[in-house]
## 1
Amino acid sequence: MEQNISVERALEMLRSAVQPLPPVRRRATEAEGFVLAEDVFAPIHQPPWPRSPLDGYALRAAYSAPGAAKRVVATICAGSCYDGPVGPKEAVRLMTGAPIPPECDCVIAQEDTDGGTETVLLHRALRPWENYCFTGEDYRRGALLLPQGTRLRGLALGLLASAGLLRRDVELAVRPRLRAALICTGDELVPADTPELGPGKIYSSNAWLLASRLRMLGVELTVLRETFSDDAPALAETVRSALPGCDLVLTTGGVSVGAKDILHETLPLLGAERLFWRVRLKPGSPLMFSLVDGKPLLSLSGNPFAAAATFELFARPLLAALEGCGEGLPTAVRATLDADFPKRASVPRYVRGRLTDGRLSLPAGHSSGQLASGLGTNCLAEIPAGASCPAGTEVRAWLL
Ligand code: AMP
Ligand code: MG
């Protein structure tokens, strides 16, 4: 087991420990939210024929000139075609999205004419291919439309539909929806619906926060368990029974060096292969990563903000690795601190922040046990190790 490793090393180990799940075939119409496990190529040109980008008149550029009059031989709306001849003194009236007739090489905008349905007077000359959308302007048949690893939503689904790939008979290879088990431990915890807190007890918040984040990321929660205890054999049993129905296990609590940090006792009971423990960052440094029956088990600190932050930094890349879709980290941008951050640490520190227009403000509360100061924040600001950062310092911000 590696100990006390850098964030980068931890990410590298997480990614190399897991393989993307074996692909399954799904009807394309039912694949929203899934990650493609194959490259998808365009079966057609889009658009399939040259089309008019505006309302106007199609004609032959060589015969255009200011003041030239043309006879309108047809009026074509989007959805119909005109394949007939168009002579030097003729034009075809077109609406936006209509096919440009084969004999025409440009379209003059309605506003550049005195146009009617019988004749049209041009106000200017046109160059060949002016206002002309070519066949395959968007993509050509055979082009790589969506590479494997693309999550099918929004624009990607629009692209599939545009290429005729959302026909009912089309199937795609995708990664199965991830199934996670989330298990929160701790003697001091009581269920969130307990009417009154007993002495020394707190409500468990991690399960609610992390379950919601997992669902937001499209993960199916097959097991959501709070043990309300620090009992190693009981936790081992809970993990053991969760394993067959999930692709990964997340736990919170019990990973530090205290008397009740039971993961150290639990993992041997599970025959787990421990890959790393403790990462050089704040908060959440006692992060632990193991494999149990070949499945990843990521154990987060129980401190609510530590659990939330290390979820974004480590659990998301793990989920992405299982789905074969990119690095999974939040998007990083450069941002300028709008006030001093004088606290120094010997390790990089990830603090909640609010980024607006490149300016980053950090709330007052930074402790790993605090949740309230995170409300309204939209990123994790990365304060480099050793640095004290005066206002105006540029730091990296991970957008959440
Ligand atoms: P641990 O990681 O078990 O050492 O817990 C660190 C801190 O986080 C302690 O103050 C715990 O009481 C608190 N904590 C652990 N689990 C939870 C939870 N599910 N919800 C809220 N706080 C928790
Ligand atoms: Mg504990």
## 2
Amino acid sequence: MSVCQPVSHQPTIRFDRLGPDVYGNAHPQALLQAIQEEGEALLDLANQHVISTLQYSPATLLQLFRLAAKYESNPNRYIRHNSPLRGKILINAFYEPSTRTRLSFDSAWHRLGGDTISITDRSTTGLAKGESLQDVAEMFNNYGDCVVLRDTNAEAIHAMTGSLHIPIINAGNGIDEHPTQAMADLYTIFKWRPQLVKAQVEPEQRIRIGVVGIPGRMRTVRSLLRILSKFPAAVKELVLFHEPGLDPSQDYWDPGQREELEKAGLRVSTCDDLPAAIPDLDVIYINAIAWVGDSYEVHGRSFQLTADLPYKSGAIVLHPLARGRELDTSLDRTDHNWYFSQARGAVFVRMALLTCMVERTAQVMDII
Ligand code: CP
């Protein structure tokens, strides 16, 4: 008789890791159908560095989201039957803390069949011995096919591009930009309202977006505003919230930042009364942290989103995470919680981007 006995008769819970959105509120198929396939736009991404959200045309972004929606609609197909990144190596170089960005790039690359190598601490590399960024870039050329870099120094990515022969992705450079986060943010908004991808959006379908954050200090906010400026037809109004008593003409915008958005066709306003504005907001994007140097600032301490506020019916809350008290966990079990879907969708957006950057687009464009 076997000495091994089952310790429990609990039913086994099957959980398909790659199945549909477990949060139940993001349906990529509707977005897939809303965007007509014009895959040639993706060829422009091959071997191109990803530095700023400003680089991208609306057409390229939409095709990227279409490919992301393809992946999200049927993720197992690519792992089990295709593996378009087999034989390719991603270098993940993160010199600043990260949960989502580093792991989701890792996950995206692995899901497409590639291998990854990582640096998670600058002090374990030659940089600690005074090695130049240019020499590190030369080494990256030998070891991988693509680099993802997060650095506290906003200039580091620019210092490396001159020496790199493989594409690099800006995964957050100081307080400057985080372009793939913005792609994930907009992908989430378009999954929520696929009609917003149209060149002409009916006035009653346009959305009012509230942003709680400091556009001149937070890279996620800067990149989000820039990517929204590519789709002005979707936006009725962009409302930037600041703390009562703060003068938004001081230490809030970077010079020219607001003008850049207005020139792109966005109607921009500022407001210090978030609770009063909430019933009119379709999307509320909130962030409190700005990473500066080796530490972080917390802004907007008077703002907190909780489940009991008077949200508009169907309104969604987005947050790049990590969160603090500004995003109360009471919201997690409401229909307004789209921030977990936002984090999940980032994997598929990054899968799409990486595929195109290393010239494997043709291998996945014939599959729906
Ligand atoms: N959204 C984001 O950048 O999260 P991490 O800092 O965890 O990567």
